[in-house]
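User: Second chain of the day. Same drill as before.
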Amino acid sequence: MNLRAPVTLLDVAQRAGVSVATASRVLNGGDRVPRPELQERVREAAAELGYTPNAQAQALAKSSTNVVGILVHDIEDPYFAAIANGVMRAADERNLLVMMASTFRDAEREIAYLSSLRAQRARAAVMIGSRRTDADQLARTANEIDAFLGSGAGLALVSQSGMPAHTIEPDNRAGAAQLARELVGQGWRKFGVLAGPEQLATARDRRDGFVAGLAEAGLEPVAVLAGDFTRDGGHAAALELLDRKVEVDCLFAVNDVMAVGAMSALRAQGIDVPGRLGVAGFDDIATLRDVWPGLTTVRLPLEQMGRRALELAIEGGDPRTETYAPEVVLRESTTRK
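Assistant: Same format as last time:
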């Protein structure tokens, strides 16, 4: 059995009639770009010989690979999946390879993954997930971000304001406040809030924005219940609210998956939505297309946010924050009968 020796960069250089250094600059990248005619000769020789560039050599030549990392809190959550999809589409258009990891909302795991991407000389990374409020974890995350950027890589964050990197930030407070005003305008008055974890800034900002919107109408929530930022968290919080026999006529969940869980719990208890209780969420995830009654929510341009995050990470430059305005979408789940 004859095994053909792998084609080397030297083979390509000899076929093209150029130096190995010139062949490397064409195929592996570098600061000095050869003349167009030399580039064409090298690429033709590589194609004829079936040469495959060495990824490690490319990394050394460029000081980075063509890898983009995506760190996401929970890829099962449609909110995060939609943003990650935007990042991946933008990366694909730039012929970048994507590596994705789910941190499961663990700050230590997030720091470790970012450090690993730095060691692998990734070109850029996008971190997607709500900022936590723990000061020590924030400081350690900021230190790793500084180290990552110091390596020459690019970085952008989604929903993690206050860090020394480009940030895509939805205006959660304004969106929740506008939703409150719209619901009051529909005639709802006794609100229960399924608030999510206190340590997540996104959950807290949406809760506070909604409460502020109610205050404009001289109202305050009848009940505020913390719970996991998940479908099961919304389900459990809704059941707890029913067990307390709190008199409410409308529930606001700080994200859509919690709202979907709450609607499931209400349906299992024989409670009509919106006849007995109105329900609203936040995000306008794609899953809502299959939910009935249609869920009133606050729409965010999730895929667009992911695309822009990747663009900022690749562009580099001084850190800046871009804020995205949400839009209230009224559907059947809060239509008064």
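The chain has a mean pLDDT of 88.

User: Great, on to the next one.
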